[in-house]
Every structure is written in C-alpha cells, then in structure tokens.
Amino acid sequence: METSAFLAGAQDRLVDEVVAAIERHDQARDLAWHHPPSPEKRRRDVRQLLRIVLRCVREGSAEPMITPSQQIAADRFVAGVAITEVQAAFNILQEVLWRQLADAFSGDQRIEALGLVNGALGTGKDAAARTYVSLASRAGSPLAGPPAPAAAGALATSGGQPRTDRLADAPVRIAAYGRVGVICLDDARKRNAIGARMAHGVVAALAKLRAQDVRAVVLRAAAGQDVWSAGHDIDELPRGKRDPLGYDDPLEEMLRAIRSFPAPVVAMVHGTVWGAALDLVLSCDLVTADETASFAITPANLGLPYNTTGLLHFLGRLPINIIKEMFFTAAPLDAGTAKEWLLINHLVESSELEAFTLRLAENMASKSPMAIAVIKEQLRVLTDYQPIAAQVYERIQGLRRQAYDSSDYIEGLTAFAEKRQPVFRGA
Ligand code: KGJ
Questions:
Q1: pLDDT for 285-308, tens place per residue?
Q2: Are residues 223 and 120 in the same domain?
Q3: Which of 295, 278, 303, 276 is nearest to 402 (CA)?
Q4: Is 423 part of a structural domain of the chain?
Q5: Which of 4, 136, 208, 387 has its CA 20 to 30 Å from the CA of residue 313?
Q6: CATH number of the domain bearing residue 84
Q7: How far apart are CA 264 and CA 261, in angstroms?
Q8: What is the pLDDT of residue 24?
Q9: Which residues, at least 6 apart from 393, have a Cβ–Cβ distance to it below 8 Å?
C-alpha cells in the first residue's frame, strides 16, 4: 500500500490520536492559553493539518505546507501562545505518524514513507517558526522593520520567507497576515502625499486583499517615517477654475473604496497627518495611534474650499465646534487631545502600536464577516444620508466655486511650491 493511501484510510484514527496527544501535552505543560481552542476546533485544525500532509505526500512536494503553517503561527502569535509551543502540534502529529507508518510499512517503503512525512512537517515547522519569530521581533521593536508581518495566501513567497508585495507603479505595499491585510503607504520622499498613483495603489491594494478573502485591513505608513501622510499631493491639485476635490479626484475615489470596503479598515497612525490624509484616517473604521501622532486639516492654509462630502466625513465623527477649530486654525492636534476628542479609538505606546493594532484587527477578522460587512454598510449609508434640496446643493457649489476661482487659492498653491508663507487678500 502507498503512504498516501494509508494516511487517507487512517485519517479518523490519526485525528483522534493526535487530538488526545495534544490535550495530554497541554495538561502536562499546564499551558495558559489566552483563547483555548474548543475541542471541535482543535479536531478541525488537526484534520486540516493532516490533509495538508496528505496532499504533500500525494504531490511529492512540501510546498502546500508553507502557507497554512504561516497561518497557524500567526494565529498562535495573536492568541498569545509562547514561542516554545508553536511547533507543538507539528511535533505531535509527526510522532503519531512515525509510529503508525513504522508499524504499517517496512524496509524501503518505511524509509520512503517517513521521509515524505518528515519533509512536509519539517517544512511546516520551519515556516511556522520563521513567521512567529518575525512577528515577535516586530512586536518587540515595532516600526523598526518592514511594515507588516508577512504573509499568508498568495502574498507569501514560495520559499517560506515572508515578504511584502509592492504594487506595480504605486508607492504602496501590501501584505496579508492570516486574515488581516496590511496596506502600507511608502513614499518617504514626498512624505506619503496622496497623488493619483498613491490613491490608485490603495484602491488596487484593497481589491487585491479582497480577492484574498482578507477580513480586516490595517492602513499604515512605512516603518521609520515620521509623516503618516502629507495629504493631497498639492502638485496635482488643479490650478484654478476647476473643483480641486471633484468626485473623480483619485483621492476621493480612494476614500470611497475604503468606506465601502466590506470589512473593517483600521488606520494605524505613527507620525503626522495632514489635510486630506485626515479625511483618509476618518474614513477608516477605527483609528489606533501612538504618541507621535498629530492631526491637522489644512485647506485654510491653501485657500481651498473643502468638498461637501469631505465635510460630512468630519461631521460624522466629530462635534462641530471641534471641526471648526481644526478647519479654521489648521493647527495640528496632538495625540492626547485627539484621544480626548474621540478622533482616536486607542492611543498606544509606540512600542506596542503594531502588535496592538494587529491583534485588534485579528479579533475583528475572527468574527462573522457577513454581519460586519452589513453593519458597516448600514452605518455608511445612514451617516452619508443627508437629503438636501438641489437648490441648496447648487448654492454650496456656487460658494465653493468663488473660493477655488479666487486668486487666494492660486496664492496658496504658489506659496507652497515656493516654500513660503501665503499672503491672502480674501479675493
Ligand atoms: N504635496 C506635494 N508635495 C509635498 C507635500 C504635499 N502635500 N508634502 C510634502 N511635499 C514634498 C515637499 O514639497 C518636498 O519636496 C518633499 O515632499 C519633502 O517635504 O522640495 P521637494 O523635496 O521637492 P518637506 O517639506 O521638505 O518635508 P518635512 O520638512 O519633513 O515636512 C513635512 C511636512 C508634512 C510637515 C511638510 O512637507 C508639509 O507641511 N507638507 C504639506 C502638508 C499639508 O498641508 N498637506 C495638506 C495638503 N492639503 C490637502 O490635502 C487638502 C485636500 N486640503 O484641503 O488642504
């Protein structure tokens, strides 16, 4: 009999034996699980692991083991399981399989069977250990390394080495960490200003993560940057006689993509946030930040009439006196004040921010994706629902037109390009 036929036939018995051995192992070690898996889940997990081993044996390749093992390690990391325990299920399965295969086969067949199983589980253990260590080292020194822990699904490399993907022609990178996707703004030269390439990159990243069945997304700046985003790329704002924040502006398209993404998007803010980047942060579903974060909305520095949809985003999140202070002064709000004014959900130590945010995202990713998608959409529709008469809307647009047709608006853009203070005349 072939190894694969033996494993397929003995599946139920093997699962029973492995589950019992894992339970004994946990009791003996008195493991303090933060989220102990239910017996049913444990059974399902073991059966799945066994099926993957079976697939590796059938295909004669350890490749199918890599991604699920990274996922297992990521889940264990999030569940707070100690590093010494990450390979436990692999070891126990290996021990049980060895025993069974050694009993069932002899001679060369036995050597071949043990070799196949060892190859698969060895690769799995290796991938799991690498992933766990990579996550743990980032949690210890967050923001020090590449932006996101890597990577399950199609984003992982075939060699088991985690990596992030750079989207073609966009200063945006993505990674998937189990069911959590990470989108990373990565244009240090321009301080993550959002032009068409950046905005289209974020939209493409969301589409890509959605196709991966990611169930929560973290939006962040690349490691080591002290500007989260400098807002709209001012070089790409139209110079007069045209709505600077029209419906088709790529940045507006990006905001809509985030707001209608059918899973939670968490803005993880390390560094300063300017102008439309604050609209972006507020368009995310939750905000985590560390003490380096600050938030400014700056159209008054440019003479730019903010768009009505954008103002509604602010109205949906903040009291009107706070909105007015922020828009009228353009002054950055420090992280403590932002927390006090409920702009931030969680203010976390820098050293904790990444691990905290990933855990928060993973928690949401473990809940019912359908319920969350529906509730998010309900909230979006309800908060966007602002019936106004056509006449009123036309009046608002007329007022805005006066501002973006004005010489003050041109002066704001010119002053920025010339790196000087603008001189506004109110006309
Ligand atoms: N658009 C285009 N280019 C930008 C932007 C931007 N928003 N922000 C920075 N840059 C460019 C600068 O012109 C520099 O280009 C380079 O990025 C580094 O910036 O001179 P170059 O090298 O060719 P800088 O100023 O030398 O960096 P830092 O000294 O580190 O200062 C970072 C700041 C973020 C504080 C500073 O760059 C800044 O104040 N940027 C503008 C922030 C802002 O007000 N953004 C809001 C844009 N307005 C809106 O989004 C909207 C819609 N609005 O209504 O206001």
A1: 999 999 999 999 999 999 999 999
A2: no
A3: 303
A4: no
A5: 208
A6: 1.10.490.70
A7: 7
A8: 87
A9: 308
User: Of all protein residues, whose CA lies closest to atom 55 belonging to ligand 1?
Assistant: 299
**Are 62 and 191 in the same domain?**
no
Domain count, the chain: 2
What is the CATH number for 190? 3.90.226.10
pLDDT in tens, 171-209: 999 999 889 999 999 999 999 999 999 999 999 999 999
Most informative mutation of 234, 295, 308, 327 for ligand 1 (most atoms within 8 A of CB):
234
Q: In one letter, which amino acid is 376?
A: K
Distance (Å, whole) CA 145 – CA 138: 7
Cα 178 to Cα 182, 225, 287, 289: the distances in Å are 10, 25, 21, 22
Boundary (domain end) residue, out of 77, 106, 140: 140
| Same-domain pairing of 159 and 66 | no
Residue 17: domain span: 3-140
Residue 216, strand partner residues: 180
Ligand 1 centre from 193 Cα, in Å? 7
* Residue 165 shares a structural domain with residue 214: yes
pLDDT at residue 169, rounded to an integer: 83
Is the residue at 276 inside a domain?
Answer: yes
Residue 131 belongs to a domain: yes
Q: How far apart are the first and last CA of the chain?
A: 88
Q: Are residues 107 and 200 in the same domain?
A: no
Q: Positive or negative CA dihedral for 247, 228, 262, 383?
A: negative
Q: What is the pTM of this model?
A: 0.69
Which residues make beta-bridge pairs with 58?
Answer: none
The residue whose CA has the least distance to atom 15 of ligand 1 is 190
Q: Residue 273: phi, psi to the nearest 5?
A: -125, 130
- Report whether residue 273 contacts ligand 1, using a CB cutoff of 6 Å: no
**Three-point CA angle 291, 78, 254, nearest 5°:** 60
**What type of residue is 218?**
V
> Residues 220, 361: one domain?
yes
How many angstroms does the Cα of residue 82 sit away from the middle of ligand 1? 43
